[in-house]
Design a protein that fits this description.
globular; three-stranded antiparallel β-sheet; 181 residues; single chain; 31% helix
């Protein structure tokens, strides 16, 4: 019988091990072991790491809001965003929904343990349909994310997207996308 276990970890304890996994699959080494607002979800099959996801507070959001006349409120607001930095499974595990379970685990953890209201992701063109089916709003090539009218930094070479982690979006802030020229 195959043993499938989903585990959560913090970057300080599991970061290097999971970074090695990401690197083998061509995703670089996205985990900063000292990021106290980062978190890892992983799937182990028969004791072997076969999939992982990593998310952290979106520090680029804090920078944009802080410089966008939000002052310290911008930093506090930025804590409501977590950015999915990596999600990977090897090709032989595709089709088993491990990636969906990892995404849901990261989203639940971001909301419950970090108080995040939104999960952000930078997507390649090939990923758009998969994320859209999982309730992400995806910006087109000529669109940018905004929060309360403040443009957020674009991800060069990627399409930006977000997913609300709330049952109802609070009236104090609004996420949207705007066309840029």
């Amino acid at each position: 019988m195959t043993a499938i276990n989903y585990l959560r970890g913090n970057p300080l304890v599991a970061g290097e091990y999971v970074n090695d996994f990401f690197e083998k699959l061509g995703h670089g080494r996205p985990i900063n072991a000292w990021d106290v607002n980062g978190h890892i979800s992983a799937v182990f099959i028969d004791g072997q790491l076969r999939g992982a996801a990593y998310a952290a507070t979106a520090t680029s959001i804090a920078d944009a809001l802080f410089s966008g006349h939000y002052s310290l409120d911008g930093v506090v607001t930025a804590m409501r965003f977590h950015s999915l930095e990596a999600l990977a499974i090897p090709p032989d595990c595709e089709g088993n929904e491990y990636n969906t379970h990892l995404l849901e685990s990261i989203a639940d953890h971001a909301r419950r343990d970090f108080g995040a209201d939104y999960l952000l992701a930078r997507l390649d063109d090939a990923d758009v349909e998969w994320y859209a089916r999982r309730q992400f709003t995806v910006c087109g090539k000529d669109e940018r994310l905004t929060m309360n009218g403040v443009p957020l930094p674009a991800s060069e070479g990627y399409l930006d997207s977000w997913r609300s982690l709330l049952r109802a979006v609070p009236a104090v802030s609004t996420m949207s996308k705007v066309r840029v020229h």
